[in-house]
Amino acid sequence: MTKKTIAVSLSSVVALSLVLSACGTGSNTSSPAATTAASAAPKKNVTFSIGYATGDPAGKQAIADAVAAFTKANPNVKINDLSEGGMASYLDWLKTKDAVGEFPDLVEMRDTQLFSEAGKIAELPPEWLALFSDAPKLNGKNWTAPIVGNPPHGIIYSKKAYADAGVTAEPKTYDEFLAIQEKLKAKGITPITFGGKDIFHWGFWVNKYLMDNVFGDDPNWNSKRTKGQASFTDAGPMQAMKDFNELFTKGYVDKGWASTADNQTASMLVTGKAAQLFSGPWMFTQISQADPKFEFGWYPVPDRKGRIIVNGLNNIQGWSISTKANQDADKKAAITEFVKFFFSKDQYSKYLKAVNGISTTKEAITYEASPQMKRVLDVMADSKTIKSLQINAFFGDNQMPPQWRNWYYKLIQEWLTKGDFSEAYMKRADAEWDANIKANAASKK
């Protein structure tokens, strides 16, 4: 696809003053009638579309609430919400919307490098950037307004299940974590629920092990893979997938994973069908809503060296404005007002509380956090915590071929179903990565 250069035109606002001569005084005064007419002038009606990922019900509702509150306060603005659920990945959904000419005007952007290079999104307006303390750049430009700080994944566990299995302390090493799984199994309790029906859910555990064994020590591994200087058959990636595979082969994961959707995992946990869920803090609200009396805890899973490595670095994901909308002065102005509204202290605090999120704005935003969320915030504030990005979140020279991720998750499902994990699968991962890199380079010519 040919890279497009987007020319951003800034519209200026001209103030018109009506000056009248006062009778017998020689002084100039504004006409009260003219002032009243100007202030009462109706705002121009504007419609723009919005698109965002819907995998997390709490997040989906929080954004929908923000849209409703904004349009209530701004009746001249209509926001067409294109977002919808389904089995397709968010990337595939966006590609489909683009193909049928329905690419959202305001879009939650996750594969930023892909869409910026394709000319689908524009550089952020300066008014947006003024809201944030840290907005990472790609190729020297800001493309996204970070919706929320990168949330770490961890084990969300039933306190009752742990007590029934005789688990009295959270693990300090990975071996201790495995020992907990054995205790749960011995008591006839299914250790882990897994939303394998939804493709994005696979990234939680896969990235945990890749960060532990690869990215925590080498954040430039992706660029080395692209250059042929590293391989998925190397010791780190192989150990990562051996550890991942072990969760399933040792019976730690619920056998119905293939038919379990991500939004069913909270129910699995609170009804006692499984003792644990590996996910992010956005699940806390879902769990509490499913059963307000359910007692649960959260902790990060240590690696084999006892280190805590979590998904926690800032990335280039967030709200983006489409190139087309950016060229429409009225849409751009309305979208900018919505973005300012979304990140305003009152509204943003509601969003963060709903999703148990980490603030990204310059203005300090606080909210009443649950005990589980306080633990998350403590882990993120700990100087010993190693923060990384997930394999698909790196950018620049370290960008993963976007189409590779879901292909790889399906490859994993293949070897789990067959039960024959081996180095041969990792060689296929190398070959697919190389093929994707070659195809993407050819499409830019």
UniProtKB/TrEMBL annotation:
> Which keywords annotate this record?
Signal, Transport
**Gene Ontology cellular-component terms listed:** ATP-binding cassette (ABC) transporter complex, substrate-binding subunit-containing
Q: Signal among the record's keywords?
A: yes
Residues making up the signal peptide according to the UniProt record = 1-22
A biological process term (GO) from this entry: maltose transport
**Name of the protein in question:** Extracellular solute-binding protein
The transmembrane residues are none
Would I find Signal among this entry's keywords? yes
For this protein, the record's PANTHER family field holds: MALTOSE-BINDING PERIPLASMIC PROTEIN, MALTOSE_MALTODEXTRIN-BINDING PERIPLASMIC PROTEIN
User: GO molecular-function annotation terms?
Assistant: maltose binding
Family under the similarity heading: Belongs to the bacterial solute-binding protein 1 family.
Cite the InterPro entries for this sequence.
Answer: SBP (IPR006059)
Domain of life according to the entry: Bacteria
Output the PROSITE patterns linked to this UniProt entry. Answer: PROKAR_LIPOPROTEIN
Species name:
Paenibacillus sedimenti
